[in-house]
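Protein record

Derive tokens from sequence
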Amino acid sequence: MLRFSFACVLLISATPSLSALDVYVSATGDDSNKGSSASPVASLQRARQIVQPVAGKQPVTVHVGDGVYYLPDTLRLGPEDSGTQECPVVYQAQNRGKTVLSGGKKLELQWRPYRDGVFQTSTPVGLSIDQLFVDGQLQRMARYPNYDPQKKTQAYQGHAADAFSKSRAAGWKDPTGGFIHAMHRSRWGGYHYRITGKDSEGNVTYEGGWQNNRPSGMHADQRMVENIFEELDAPGEWYHNAKTNTLYFYPGPAVNLQTAKIEVVRLRHLIEFRGTESQPVRHITLKGFVFRHSARTFMETKEQMLRSDWTIYRGGAVFLKGTEDITITDSEMDQLGGNAVFVSDYNRRVKIQRCHIHDTGASGVCFVGNPNAVRDPLFRYGEKNDLNQVDRTPGPKNNQYPADCVVDDCLIHGIGRVERQPAGVQIEMASQVTVRDCSIYDCARAGINIGDGAWGGHLIERCDVFDTVQETHDHGSFNSWGRDRYWSSNRAESQAVIDDEPDFPFLDAYQTTVIRNSRWRCDHGWDIDLDDGSSNYDIYNNLMLSGGLKLREGFRRRAWNNITINNGLHPHVWYNDSGDEVFSNIFMAAPQGARMPTPTAKGKRIDENLYYAKTPGMKDRYADFGWDRNSIVADPLFVNPSQGDFRVKDGSPAFEIGFENFPMDQFGVKDKSLKAIAATPEIPELDVKSQMNRPRSDSGRITIPRRTFWMGVQASDLKGAEFSAFGVSADEGGIALSGFTPQSAAAKVGLKEGDLIQAVNGSKTKRVDDLLAETLKAGDQPLQVTLIRDQRAMQIEIRDVPFLTFRRQSTNEFSVDAGLKRTPKVLANQSVRDEPLSVLVDGRLDSNYGPVFGNGVTSGIYKLDLGQPQVIRSVAVWSHHLQQRRGPQRWTLYASASEKDPGWNVNDTKSFRPLTSVDTRRMNHDAFNEVVYSAERGADLGPVRWLVWQVSPVTSQSENTSFQEIRVR
């Protein structure tokens, strides 16, 4: 190789006229020609044959004239086609954007009317049509429901729960060959299925569903079918009957079928570079082309990535494997059914530069290594290594992965037109990939996605990424996972090893990934989302316009000098001693912790930030954990926020916390032709908050006036973005359990901290109200509980625990007995109305209010003093359904064995033991209603002196329960 390079240099210097070979290709040429400018050839395949004998020996340029070149087969370039650094091989369009390399075919057709505005035509025998283009515009397979371009962020731009229901399919003669597209149950991408027919009962049969690596079933509502003849009912739809070789098309009013250009798609790959590490394809450039029309590959998207949410099709319109120094520049990639560019396994120094990539069925540019290069690889989310046995050698096993590659100055949009788990740029099992000066938007999922920590070293800079996660959920404009060899879905397993080996998380993510000087906006997730395990990141000089910054479990994430507009930091379930640092940022909302912080899971440094707010307490949410003690609340004095200039003016208090201005005019593409057509994000209006946003229900220790308990542990609704911490969708919901002690009933039956309850006895429990209602209905019967643990679904049966019973009666003929030899004393934390507190233990039920807190009181507490600690077995409370509205009960019961009055702070776990919460609003009430909390058979509720009921209003007018009697046994 050195000899050829030296010879090439001598040839260039000695005889300039012989220094380079120029080959010409023309749409009107002939492959029998020599390939000169006066005698051009007709195809790239023939040009390649002319180039091969001199490739690497002298510089070669293949000039391709204007026109559309329908490739008969994939153009494959191998090591024999390689150039060298001194003698490169360049294939280039004579005029940028005027030369189209198409994987399709033009059809000459004779149309005739069919019916109802639909036309038909005969097609060549054996033709298979994957996509149809009329006058360059993609048309839609006949589908239900119909496509509506106005529904940009709705799944499939139209979906229906009955998309392939038995009743719908009854109108289909033979749906075989149709497709089902359905969103993932949690909207983590989607599924695709090929319809195989109908069974004897008329149900649709199908195969597929392997496109998502976190399978949990289809979304109940977000479904669509296509390629069904009977659904051909809207302009722009078509159906091809391959058995009869007949194409049906419903043209829009602007289409003239007599003159229209009709194209169909044939090839999956247009150009392939195929070499090996020992014999790579080298130093070839593709320049100025339009790559158009490649087949959809969604049914081949099935290769599992490393515990990622993805499966992937390892291919694209341009495919590279075993290459060095390949460049694709100044090109357009348009209307491609799958991935645009796929860089697979061993590749070095691939450059994608100044390209316009748009309207792809799957991803824009993918860099994906070989799992064989990974030490101890796992593929499904729930798979686990024995962490004591995994290889402790940092980095990859071999070189079968992309490295030192660049996506530079590219405009990427319209990503995921078919598949719903794509990215503008996808990086997986790769090293030192740079994404620079790119504008990426209009994406079904992430703009940029890093699928694992293997092996880091990536650089994301000066990018403009927005309008992402358009049809999906729980994701970000930038998204990453780090489910590397150190990571387990059981966080405690990883923590135990890391406590002894602090470098354990950096075996795969051994190089730091940098995200800087970029602008992000995600209105359906986070602007920057570092999810499960993502480690070893530096994040600075970023402008985040909507979703803020999320840092989920991982190690050594440093975020500084960033600006989050109308949002802030979202720390989720950090490891102990994670080493995370968040400082010198401008935030506009208090941190939103998910199941954290805790005394040990609080990072290394969260401090010296500026909070732009109207309330001085905005920075104090986690002050007890040492966060933001040196932060400030102030107006940062933005230069021109309405125009997107969020630099701060001279004299800004932001300089006091170490903030430094960074450029606001360098986001996105720089190439003039691309910049002229690139969109930019909408700049939001500032929402300067006058009060702190509500804390997440699974946050760290914050003063919360009222909590809900179930089986002795705290039960919290899943709100806002908390679904991400548990791996479920917001639509599914669930109740998170926390605050476990060994003595709690929940712990004794095998429930664990962080479990998420989603159903009881077959009924869904999206909210705490559902859980309390189903528990009350069950009484003393066993509970069949469906829960999510470590993001995996499981079922357990719960029996022999304290239980609740409810009964109602139309008269006051209950046998009321205080149950104790000594009449207890009743206290309240604030004044009551109508009756004295003593009537709660007088043994009588009356048709009145009883001692009731006033309307609007939300933190009223009754306290019962038994005089001395006693072993009790049950507690009962009666209410009166006064005016048919005061019978429901809502309260949480606490117990204390304290010798002295424990006071009223029921959140003091040293003084009070939570027992249960009660909500009877969904029950049918009569004049008098009783709720009894009882120990399991043969057991007791322990020694108790003080019993406390923290009550809540039960009507829309904030009226409280009309209590009548309290009994303790």
Summary: The helical segments are 2-14, 44-51, 166-169, 491-500, 672-675, 723-726, 745-748, 768-778. The first helix runs from residue 2 to 14.
